[in-house]
Amino acid sequence: MLEILGYPDRYSVPQGGEIRFMVSLEEGEKFEARLVRVINGDCNPEGPGLKFKEIAHAANGSYPGKRQKIDAGSYMVAPSVPRLGSFTFTAYVWPTLRTRNFQTIAAQGSVKIGLVEGALTLAAGEERHALDCRMLTRQWYAIKVSLDAKARRFTLEQMPLSTYALQNDRGRKSGRIAALPKTRKGFWIAGCPQGDGTVGEHFDGKIESPALLRIARWDFSREIPTTKTIDLGPSKHHGRLVNMPARAMKGHNWDGSEHRWMFKPEHYGAIHFHHDDLYDAGWEPSVALKIPADLKSGPYALHVRSGKSDEMATREDYISFFVVPRKGGRREKIAFLAPTCAYMAYANHAEHITAREAERTVGRLLQFGHSDLYMYEHPELGGSLYDSHLDGSGVCYSSRLRPVLNFSSRYHSWLGGHGSALWQYNADTHLFDWLDHHGFAYDAITDEDLHQQGHSLLKDYRVVLTGTHPEYHSTPMWDAMKRWLDEGGRLMYLGANGWYWRVAFHKELPGVIEVRRAEDGIRTWAAEPGEYYHSFNGELGGLWRRIGRPPNVMCAVGFIAQGFDLSSYYRRGPDSYHPRANFIFEGVDEEVIGNFGLIGGGAAGLELDCVNVRLGSPPNTLKLASSENHSALVMLVNEEFGVVPPNLGGDQNDQVRADLAFAELPGGGAVFSVSSIAWCGSLSHNNYDNSVSHITANVLNRFVKPEPFA
Amino acid sequence: MAYRINPETDRAYIEEFRRSPIGLHSPGLRRVLNTLRYDPTGRQVILVCRKPFKEWVLGEMPAHRSEPLAVEAGPVFTSREEAEWEVFRRRWKAHTGENINLPLKEQD
Question: How far apart are CA A239 and CA A74, in angstroms?
Answer without folding.
Answer: 13
